[in-house]
Amino acid sequence: MNEHPDLCAKTIKPTIEKQYFGRLKVTYPTRYYLLLQFGIADLNKLEWENVASLPQEMRMYAPPIVDLANNGDETGETMFVSSRAFDYDGTPSKTLLEHGPTSNAEFWKHIEKIADCMLDSRKLFFDIFNMGQNIVIQKCSASESRPLLIDVKRSGKRMYPFQLHLFLPSEQRKKFSRRFQAFRERFEDEEREAPSETFPHMLGQFDEAV
User: Which of 141, 136, 139, 127 is nearest to 187 (CA)?
Assistant: First the structure.
């Protein structure tokens, strides 16, 4: 039983399985795989550092309680601890993937603010708008929702070592633009009354400039 139901703790699995050529499966110790693939020993520490370095305008979208703790066993692995999100009626908030498309105008205003902030600061997290599984939609009232970010690991060329074109900032913006547009197409309900035109226009300018 969870002694702290208002908290979530991310742990790192000891092994990771990769599949090659459609059939061949290889199991690696997670720590060594991360070191070889990304030059990173601890994903939880990386996420904790990323949250701490978020631009000020994005801090409000991170869980209010974020800490890095030892998991207490002999491995010495870390846990990424954050507060669990609840809706106004006391039920746990769902990820956007679980919730499905939304037409809530306030939610999409917040989403546009997050995307604008990342573009302005040139701190692009590619996993935020990936499949809707890394954003929680928290219902603050019956008529207003806001997003919370629950995964901020993949930023910059280091997390995509074999995509050499991402060494160019312009290519990083293009990748971010494609993910954001796919995210909107999948989760922005057509019933939304007043979609913003400024942010898509901004993305278009980035694409045209490269």
Answer: 136
Q: Is residue 140 part of a domain?
A: yes
What is the count of structural domains for the chain?
Answer: 1
What pLDDT, in 10s, does the model give residues 17-72? 888 887 889 898 888 888 877 777 788 888 888 888 888 889 899 887 777 777 65
Q: What does the pLDDT look like over 100-145, one tens digit per residue?
A: 999 999 999 999 999 999 889 888 888 888 888 889 999 999 999 9
Residue 99 inside a domain? The answer is yes
Q: Which residues contact 84 (CB under 8 A, 6 or more apart)?
A: 5, 6, 7, 8, 92
| CA–CA dist 94, 135 (Å, integer) | 9
1 located within any domain? no
The DSSP secondary structure of 96-164, one letter per residue, reads HHHH--B--HHHHHHHHHHHHHHHHHT--BTTTTSTTSSEEEEESSSS-EEEEE-----BSGGG-TT-G
Contact between residue 121 and residue 115 where contact means Cβ atoms under 8 Å apart: no
- Whole-model pTM: value is 0.75
